[in-house]
Design a protein that fits this description.
It comes from Triparma columacea. With about 400 residues, this protein is an alpha+beta fold. Helices cover about 25% and strands about 20% of the residues. It contains 11 helices and 15 strands. The protein is elongated. The N terminus is likely disordered.
């Protein structure tokens, strides 16, 4: 809805801070219901802010330099309202609302009505039957019936906007209102649409069954067009694991026991000491001697030791001899490869380099660059004698 151009231009002059079109020149609000209303002077008249999904707070200001607050109401309908209309006989009358009740005073500050929200409380008082209708100024008007029914009206130059300032609750009743006394100080609370844990589990199972049918549909949940095809596949694949289960091809039922007995026979027998447990697991039965055998058995480490660790006369080898035996007898060195035989340098001791490699290429001949003659030998001897004489002369000086 838009206004004629002459009226729109008039509104633009009255609201210089507004830039929207048509009837929205006097106020601005977003989709959540938060926003501002303006006076023609550009001052803010009403401010609305969200507290929750269904609760709001309202702040109302007068069109003066002091920006006098005329009304303030929070989400619990707690606040006040002041009549500041110039020339009105009820100017300075006010309405005060608290968490327990409300008070309305006239222009002489005399209490006209006082009440409590709890109607069963002592001296609860009563709200005026016609409610309280009071102008805040010439552009704002508040209508009060109870804490759930309050309306603020904003009107300037034919532009109107209504605000519901009453308290908003998700639940208007209490569990205690429908509870029954069962005795012994207990109450049986009646909850509408009460769902037990078993019912919730059933609903969850149904939702998961629907999701499972989407990923792995059953033939009974499909239409007649494909149910027969899927049914045949189910008959074949549902028992596939049991039908195609592999069976052992070799009869090795006694192989494990034979291997165990062979290992136990190779273990040396020892006596059980006081530090050993009374009952042991694993190889204890084959490793430890019973009391009768332990009385006559003499343990000798040489009988169970490896032959590589003993000398021919039965004595223990030294550390060096054991290392050499391990390197030469048990782990003999590898033969030296051909590519290493043709190279020079030092190599690891594991490479067998004792065997000399015979050169297959022709032997190099000795070549001299200077022809050895008796005359040349004499010249070299004279030069050497003169150099030696010169050094001796220097030394004697």
């Amino acid at each position: 809805m838009s206004l004629p151009e002459d009226e729109t231009s008039d509104l633009v002059k009255k609201f210089p801070n507004a830039t929207d079109e048509g009837h929205n020149l006097a106020y601005r609000f977003n989709d959540a219901g938060e926003g501002l209303c303006y006076y023609p002077s550009g001052r803010v008249a009403v401010t609305v802010s969200n507290v929750g999904q269904h609760q709001k707070r309202f702040y109302v200001y007068d069109d003066d330099r002091e920006k006098t607050m005329l009304c303030s109401l929070n989400e619990y309908a707690v606040g006040f309202a002041l009549n500041n209309t110039r020339g009105n006989k009820d100017r300075r009358s006010r309405l005060v609302l608290t968490g327990k009740g409300g008070v309305y005073a006239d222009s002489d500050q005399s209490i006209v009505a006082e009440w409590k929200w709890d109607r069963k409380a002592q001296n609860a008082g009563t709200i005026p039957p016609a409610g309280i209708n009071m102008p805040l100024n010439k552009n704002l008007f508040l209508s009060f019936t109870d804490r759930f029914t309050m309306e603020l009206t904003y009107e300037i130059s034919g532009i109107q906007k209504h605000f519901d300032c009453g308290m908003k609750l998700k639940r208007m009743d209490s569990y205690l209102e429908t509870a029954k006394h069962t005795g012994l100080g207990r109450l049986d609370v009646t909850i509408p649409d009460y769902r037990t844990l078993s019912m919730r589990q059933t609903d969850f199972a149904e939702s998961m069954r629907g999701l499972r049918n989407k990923n792995n549909p059953k033939s009974q949940n499909l239409s007649d067009m494909v149910s027969n095809i899927v049914s045949g596949l189910e008959d074949h694949f549902d028992t596939y694991i049991q039908d195609k289960k592999g069976k052992p091809s070799l009869k090795l039922a006694g192989a494990k026991k034979e291997g165990w007995d062979m290992t136990c026979r190779e273990l040396p027998k020892i006596k059980k000491t006081k530090q050993d447990k009374a009952v042991s697991s694993g190889y204890s039965e084959a490793l430890y001697l019973d009391d009768k055998e332990a009385a006559t058995y003499k343990f000798s480490a040489k009988d169970t030791a490896r032959k590589i660790l003993l000398k021919p006369n039965g004595e223990w080898k030294t550390d060096l001899e054991i290392r050499l035996a391990l390197c030469t007898e048990e782990h003999p060195p590898l033969p030296k490869p051909e590519h290493i035989k043709r190279s020079n340098g030092h190599y690891h001791y594991n490479h067998n380099a004792r065997e000399r490699h015979k050169r297959k290429s022709p032997t190099l001949r000795k070549v001299s660059t200077v022809k050895e003659t008796p005359e040349l030998q004499g010249i070299l001897a004279e030069r050497l004698a003169s150099m030696t004489g010169n050094i001796k002369d220097l030394y004697l000086r």
